[in-house]
User: Which sequence fits this backbone?
């Protein structure tokens, strides 16, 4: 139970130190009424008038009709994303096919080697080797 009191006390001390520090006052927005109504310099480009803002949000409402340019741009973005997905999956499929082919070749080689070893071990010297004694297919 004492650790909660120490944690609470530490947080209270940090909050008190932050509220009394001079850096906290420099982060406060000045309350002059002239600069809020008529921004100047780069702020003029960031903020827009209230009428323009309401028109912007009215145009961008959920049921707002999109222009043909916006529809075309969105369609191009969807097609580009589909193309990237298709290329990605094609690359992954090719990688897997190469891996499977190499694995198959290695398995064939191991099987061939073990078959040759078995034939050499079991060859009695009386008959021709198995390879030459096969029926032609």
Assistant:
């Amino acid at each position: 139970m004492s650790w909660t009191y120490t944690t609470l006390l530490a947080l209270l001390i940090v909050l008190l130190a932050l509220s009394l520090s001079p850096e906290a006052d420099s982060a406060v927005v000045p309350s002059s009424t002239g600069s809020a109504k008529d921004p100047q310099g780069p702020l003029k480009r960031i903020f827009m008038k209230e009428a323009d803002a309401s028109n912007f949000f009215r145009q961008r409402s959920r049921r707002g009709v999109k222009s043909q340019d916006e529809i075309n741009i969105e369609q191009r973005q969807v097609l580009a994303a589909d193309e990237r997905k298709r290329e990605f999956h094609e690359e992954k499929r090719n990688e897997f096919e190469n891996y499977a082919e190499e694995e198959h070749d290695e398995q064939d080689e191991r099987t061939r080697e073990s078959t040759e070893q078995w034939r050499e071990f079991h060859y009695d010297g009386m008959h021709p080797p198995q390879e030459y004694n096969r029926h032609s297919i």
Remarks:
- The two ends are 88 Å apart (CA to CA).
